[in-house]
Design brief:
- Pfam families: eEFSec_4th, euk_SelB_III, GTP_EFTU, GTP_EFTU_D2.
- InterPro entries: eEFSec_C, eEFSec_III, EF-Tu_GTPase, EFTu-like_2, P-loop_NTPase, Small_GTP-bd, T_Tr_GTP-bd_dom, Transl_B-barrel_sf.
- This is Selenocysteine-specific elongation factor-like.
- This protein has about 575 residues and is of the alpha+beta class.
- It is about 20% helix and about 35% strand.
- Strands 17, 18, 19, 20, 21, 22, 23, 24, 25, 26, 27, 28, 29 and 30 form a 14-stranded mixed beta sheet that branches. It has a six-stranded mixed beta sheet with strand order 2-3-1-4-5-6, with helices on both faces. It has a six-stranded antiparallel beta sheet with strand order 13-12-15-8-7-16, with no helix packed on it.
- Strand 10 and strand 11 form a beta hairpin.
- The two termini are about 60 Å apart.
- The relative contact order is 0.09.
- It binds guanosine-5'-triphosphate and magnesium ion.
- Guanosine-5'-triphosphate binds next to helix 1.
């Protein structure tokens, strides 16, 4: 690998027309002519209309020097220029997977706009470092320029206060002073911005383990050589002579040669921007997409993923609703089913463990586990604390999910690698309405690759619904038996409920023994016998009403005298046998 250059990918995001492309241009040009740049312009630009790539290099800053960068001479910033229009989300997620840092471009005359906010959300999900660039400062009146910049800086800082970018720098620039009609006027503030980028730069954590995942953003042929796919290694590594797969085409090819920063290399690892050359491959077949180790990505029909609600999304995310799910370079509709791990399960774990183990438990719960039970949720709850002892949110049934998951059932099969980030959104919302369309995000954990997953996969998910049935004791048969009514309808198959535990409001617990008569009544066996107080209560009730009607009357007039029955059980929503489960 070209160890003399360290590459950092910087996303350039912001509202439409804020000047992202102008900024990427200004940065590449300024840096390449600046004194500190030994390597003249190194600029590669994608032909695709959406994501644009350009880059510039600076001397490697000594403050980043460590054992892994002992021989590194240059720091390369690859700028990923994203579109700002409404289709941004689909396009950007492919780009966002490779971003180490982000520049949020804001038109200083407009401030925060709808897509500025959406970009901020994407930034929070995909990277840890951000710089806010206030562009178009040439449009501010000269006499009030400084105070207006100051005001907007404070406004942005206030907006960022509640995000993980609370400490972000805000840099004023004019990427293209005078706008499109103006001639070649030198940009303003770019040098400051480059210095800030260098200050914020870090050596990203890269590892070569795991199957290859290569995100292709540009594919073209070179006469006499073959077809080159340029892109970024998202996971694993790739070497010359490796066999790689284009899973969308079900095709494999051998890597003939590779280039990084215009120099031939033998290997590239995670984070590296590389051009991979293969032969006998029509570039039109894969303008943008994913390349992987053979067999490592399969077509998926449904997936289980961890999920968090995006706080800026103001509507409710309901189970069974359809959302746009963006994964890598693809966006597909999916039906969602939310479920969560209840806090009390973890609470038990937490109480008896040392604090080290508590943390471990808290970590483990973020992974979906087929052997664990999860509670069905009608909707996705907003996030609260991540601490396992604190409540995330409590719904009306007292249920506290401390980790939420989603089952995504895709409308068409998609290519999804394990661990992939996804973003769920409502892209059909009115793009002119000033709302955040991004609803939730998470990481894919389990894949259902069988087309018959509803029969062969879903029944393995232990997602339960809590059920409760209530009735009353109609009369006493003997010390250990009562007759219950109003729990079931006439047509209910009571056979399936035999043996289930049932509680009396007077404190006794019984078991359903069988049906009684034809109207849905049941016989209840009380193993420990009825209490004396219950017996007298039941005999008074009985004496009071001689006929059925009168008994019903007394139920209305003096409900407290009745002994109530409560039957609670769980049912797994995907259990084909619809079994009832009690603890
Ligand atoms: N006056 C002035 N105009 C600018 C500046 N930067 C960009 N512009 C103009 O603003 C318009 C939009 O600039 P772009 O760079 O295309 O904006 P963008 O954010 O890439 O736009 P999209 O990619 O469509 O979202 C163009 O007409 C630019 O010439 C600036 O610093 N000052
Ligand atoms: Mg642009």
């Amino acid at each position: 690998m070209a160890s003399d250059v360290l590459n950092i990918n910087v996303g350039v995001l912001g509202h439409i027309d804020s000047g992202k492309t102008a900024l990427a241009k200004a940065l590449s040009t300024t840096a390449s002519t600046a004194a500190f740049d030994k390597n003249p312009q190194s600029k590669e630009r994608g032909i695709t209309i959406d994501l644009g790539f350009s880059s510039f290099q600076v001397d490697f800053p000594e403050c980043l020097r460590d054992e892994t960068t002992a021989n590194t001479r240059s720091l390369q910033f690859t700028l990923v220029d994203c579109p700002g229009h409404a289709s941004l989300i689909k396009t950007i997620i492919g780009g966002a997977q490779i971003i180490d840092m982000m520049m949020l471009v804001v038109d200083v005359t407009k401030g925060m706009q709808t897509q500025t906010a959406e970009c901020l959300v994407i930034g929070e999900i995909t990277c840890d470092k951000m710089i806010v660039v206030l562009n178009k400062i040439d449009l501010l009146p000269a006499e009030r320029k400084l105070s207006m910049i100051d005001k907007m800086t404070k406004k942005m800082q206030k907006t960022l206060e509640k995000t993980k970018f609370a400490e972000a720098s805000v840099i004023p620039v004019a990427a293209k002073p005078g706008g499109p009609e103006a001639g070649e006027i030198a940009p303003v503030g770019i040098q400051d911005l480059i210095e800030n980028l260098i200050k914020q730069a870090y050596v990203p954590y890269r590892k070569s383990a795991g199957p290859l995942l290569f995100s292709v953003d540009h594919c073209f042929s070179i006469k006499g050589q073959g077809t080159v796919m340029t892109g970024t290694v998202i996971q694993g590594s790739v070497s010359v002579n490796d066999t790689i797969e284009m899973p969308s085409l079900k095709m494999t090819k051998k890597v003939k040669s590779m280039q990084m920063f215009k120099k031939p290399v033998d290997t590239a690892i995670q984070g590296g921007r590389v051009g991979i050359c293969v032969t006998q491959f029509d570039p039109k077949m894969l303008e943008r997409g994913v390349v992987s180790s053979p067999g490592s990505i399969t077509v998926t029909y449904a997936a289980v993923a961890s999920v968090k609600k995006i706080p800026y999304f103001k509507s409710t995310c309901r189970t069974k609703a359809k959302f746009h799910i963006s994964l890598l370079h693809d966006t597909v509709m999916a039906k969602v089913t939310f479920f969560g791990l209840a806090a009390n399960i973890i609470k038990e774990n937490c109480d008896n463990q040392t604090s080290d183990l508590k943390e471990k438990d808290a970590e483990d719960i973020s992974y979906f586990d087929f052997s664990k039970e999860y509670k069905y949720q009608d909707e996705l709850f907003p996030e609260g604390s991540r601490n396992c002892e604190e409540k995330l949110v409590q719904n009306e049934n007292g249920f506290v999910p401390i980790q939420q998951f989603v089952l995504l059932e895709f409308e068409r099969p998609v290519l999804v690698p394990h661990g992939a980030l996804f973003i769920g959104s409502k892209l059909d919302s009115d793009i002119h309405a000033n709302i955040c369309r991004l609803a939730f995000y998470g990481y894919v954990q389990e894949l259902f690759t069988d087309i018959k997953y509803t029969e062969n996969g879903l029944p393995n998910l232990k997602i339960y619904k809590q059920k409760m049935k209530e009735g009353v004791v109609e009369r006493i048969v003997n010390d250990q038996e009562v007759i219950g009514k109003s729990l079931f309808k006439k047509e209910t198959n009571i056979q399936t409920f035999i043996g289930l535990n049932i509680n009396l409001s007077t404190g006794e617990s019984g078991k359903i023994d069988g049906s009684f008569g034809q109207s849905g009544k049941i016989k209840i066996y009380i193993p420990d016998g009825l209490k004396e107080s219950t017996k007298s209560l039941l005999s008074t009730t009985k004496k009071k009403g001689k006929g059925k009607e009168e008994l019903a009357m007394s139920a209305h007039t003096n409900v407290d005298q009745h002994v109530k029955l409560q039957l609670t059980f769980k049912r797994y929503i995907y259990d084909t046998k619809k079994r009832m489960i009690q603890l």
